[in-house]
Design a protein that fits this description.
Shape: globular
Largest sheet: none
Structural class: mainly alpha
Strand content: under 5%
Helix content: over 70%
Oligomer: single chain
Number of helices: 11
Number of strands: 0
Distance between the termini: 76 Å
Length: 253
Amino acid sequence: MTMAPMPADKDPQPGKRSAVRHFLPALLIVAGLALGYVLGLHQYLTLAYLAESREALKAYVDAHSLLAPTLFALFYAAAVAVSFPAASVLTIFGGFLFGWILGGILVVVAATAGATALFLAARSAFRDTVRQRLGGVAAKLARGFEEGAFGYLLVLRLAPVFPFWVVNLAPALFDIRVRTYVAATALGIMPGTFAYAYLGRGLESVLIAAAASGKDLEVADLVTPQITLAFAALALVALIPLIVRKLRAMKDM
């Protein structure tokens, strides 16, 4: 008499394995951020380092016309993905090394890719947990953000009121399509990106003067009130369709 095969043993810890896969992208991002600080990258991503190394960096770019922009874009995307606080400085680096047009294009592509990677990782790890706890006013705000996701995110990108990494993460808590996130991010960061890249394009004389005077140059020293007002104006223009939509909705009630 042939005995029936014994049923295969079930995985005794399927929940734990699922949780590990669930949080693994977020853990990798945190590990990448920690590694950046351990390697001391924050010491190099400064205008002071650019002033000291500008000739060597430009010589490398001239000698490696394809490799240099590729490495820059990959590094920028990785820095954004792990929320390393160097977006403004790196954008100025890009304009300085590659010119404001190519530098701006590289930054838009790399920043969008890095922000999307962070968005996907955060959504995988935290969205379901947070949404289960939303209620009342918070739930209504979430629905409002989701209904006008492109417009809201575009305004947040145009107006640099919140840190770049905060705007990268916040939409992950809502039900926003990836293509909407990518489109609003790429379009929203273009004005600021090309403005900072243009600052980098004309930085040579400023760096030389700062080095001669012994003064440590900061990004804030380069940003004029006119640029800040321009960002605010762009954000207000982007906000107009959202305001009109809300007014129409209130009128129809």
